[in-house]
Structure formats: structure tokens, C-alpha cells
Amino acid sequence: GRSLLDALALAGYSRGVRFPSFQRIGGFVRAWAFCVVVAGGARPAVAQFTAPPRGLNTLTGKSLSFGYLNALRSATGTTAQKMAALNYDGVDVVLLAFASLQADGTLTMTGNAASYRTALISNAHARSKSVLFSVTGAFETVAASPTARATLAASVLSMLEQHGFDGVDFD
Fold first, then answer.
1. CA gyration radius for the chain?
2. Integer Cα distance of 161 and 44 in angstroms
3. Peptide bond into 165 cis (omega under 30)
4. Strand partners, 24
């Protein structure tokens, strides 16, 4: 199967559009410099915003350690205390699992991911660590629809801007 990123890139390249913001880094993707939307053969819209200071471009030139955070099984204390107690020295990048990709291209973050988000980003950034949100869900459905792809691009941009994430991982 083809990944959503591949489908977006193929759609863009077939129309002569470049995707400068989507770069593969191992299995991970950064999408923060530009967000290119290709919708039904129309000329792509480009939304721009400033790259976060801990963006993946600051981590080049060395091997990186990535760690997923989904649930803390035996941690005690408040959410803020749990996030502060994590061993941030063990990773360069934390991936918060999961944002759920809906068939219409929207992203929702519930449960532990929503609960951990603010304190995790604050604690990780205070230690100069990057935080990505990991996406799982209706990739094939979204990839097949120009409207859903455009919605996904806007949803990713919104998550990056609203919450301070440094990037996105399409799981």
C-alpha cells in the first residue's frame, strides 16, 4: 500500500507542484515550513508560518533517538508531574500517540494524547527536545479525496500552530 504522504506527493508531482515541506527522515515526516494543498487539479494554496525553534532541521548531523508516548502504566501524580518525571535525556524526539485521522481529513486528539499534550510539549521544549504528534487512521480514504487531502493539510497546520508541536509522524 501507498502511504498518504506518497499519495499527496504523487498528486502534487503529477501537476508539477513541489512539496518542499514534506521531507522523509527515516519513517518520520516534517511538515512545518509550508503546507501545500492540492485540491482537484486547482492551483495549490500555500500557507506559511515560522518553523518552531526545535524543528527537525535542528537535529541533523547525528543519529536520533525517537520515543513514542502513548500511556504511562505505573506513573503516579498529576499529569503535569508525570510529564515532568519522564526521562527526556533518553530521546531527541518524543512522538505523542495518537491523533486520529478521520475520513474527511480532520484530526482529533483524545484520551491520553489530549491529556498529556500541553505538559509534554512544555517539559520537552524546556529540555530542547522536539515533540511530534503521531497520526493513525483513515489514510487510504483521505488519500483518495482531493477535498479530504486539503482538509488534512489544514488540520496538520492547525495542530502545529495551536499546540506548538514540532512536526508530524504519519504512522
1. 16
2. 20
3. no
4. 29
Q: What are the residues facing 69 on neighbouring strands?
A: 96
* The C-alpha cell that represents 152 in the structure block: 488534512
Of 122, 146, 138, the closest CA to residue 170 belongs to: 138
How far is the C-alpha of 65 from the C-alpha of 148, rounded, in Å? 32
pLDDT digits (tens, 9 = 90+) for 57-113: 666 677 888 899 999 888 899 999 999 999 999 898 999 999 999 999 999 999 999
Nearest to 125 by CA among 159, 156, 163, 162: 163
Cis omega before residue 98 (within 30°)?
A: yes
Cell of 107: 484530526
**Rounded (5°) CA angle 5-8-14:** 135
Tens of pLDDT, residue by residue over 17-63, are 333 333 333 333 333 322 333 333 333 444 444 555 666 666 667 78
